[in-house]
């Protein structure tokens, strides 16, 4: 998996947003999507509360859409167990 400097900058911003808005959720790692190796998954720990998981998903889906529209990179924040 190759991550360029712009992607690294965008990922860092997502992780900073994660730490600021969801302090109980932790960054785990970055993987390629199994469907498309050009898509990146930013894996994070799953929130204990289902409502918090819905909030996290909504928050980062908007940010991911902005990144896709502005830079052409498909990045998803994925809660995992």
Task: Write structural notes for this entry.
With 81 residues, the protein is an alpha+beta fold. It has a single domain (5-80), classed as GMP Synthetase, Chain A, domain 3 (2-Layer Sandwich). It contains 2 helices and 3 strands; from the N terminus they run αββαβ. It has helices at residues 5-21, 50-71, and strands at residues 27-32, 40-45, 75-80. A 3-stranded mixed β-sheet has the order 1-2-3. The longest helix has 22 residues, at 50-71. The protein is globular and about 35 Å long.
Characteristics of this structure?
globular, GMP Synthetase, Chain A, domain 3, 3-stranded mixed β-sheet, 81 residues, single chain, 22% strand, alpha+beta
How many DSSP-defined strands?
Answer: 3
The succession of helices and strands, N to C, reads: HEEHE
First-last Cα distance: 23 Å
Overall tally of domains: 1
Would you state the CATH class?
Answer: Alpha Beta
From the 3D coordinates, which CATH architecture would you assign? 2-Layer Sandwich
CATH fold assignment: GMP Synthetase, Chain A, domain 3
Q: What structural category characterises the helix and strand content? A: alpha+beta
């Amino acid at each position: 998996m190759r991550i360029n400097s712009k992607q690294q900058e965008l990922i860092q911003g997502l992780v900073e947003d994660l730490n600021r808005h969801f302090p109980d959720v932790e960054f785990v790692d970055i993987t390629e999507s199994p469907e498309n190796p050009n898509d990146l998954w930013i894996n994070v720990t799953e929130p204990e509360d289902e409502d918090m998981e819905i909030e996290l998903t909504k928050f980062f889906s908007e940010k991911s859409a902005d990144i896709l529209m502005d830079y052409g990179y498909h990045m998803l924040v994925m809660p995992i167990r």
